[in-house]
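Hi Y.,

Following your request, here is the sequence exactly as I used it, all 80 residues.
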Amino acid sequence: MVRRTDGAVPLHRDPDTDRVRAMLTRFDETVHALEPTLPRFRLAEGDILVLDNYRCRHGRDAHTGERTVRILTLRTADAR
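Below is the corresponding structure, written out as tokens. Let me know if you'd prefer a different format.
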């Protein structure tokens, strides 16, 4: 997973705040360590990327320029 948010924080008044913060720090450090080894590819104009969000952890690098995103959600009887 490449993209992550700095907004992940323990819930308000969580009695286990210190543990949650430690786990978030561990997660962030692990992601940073793995980023250089992750496969990268570029989509060309007109390309389509289809992902199964139940089976695939994914992210993207920052980009510049115009970007159009259209999301189509397909749900099958297997999605439970």
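The chain has one domain: 1-80.

Thanks again,
Q.
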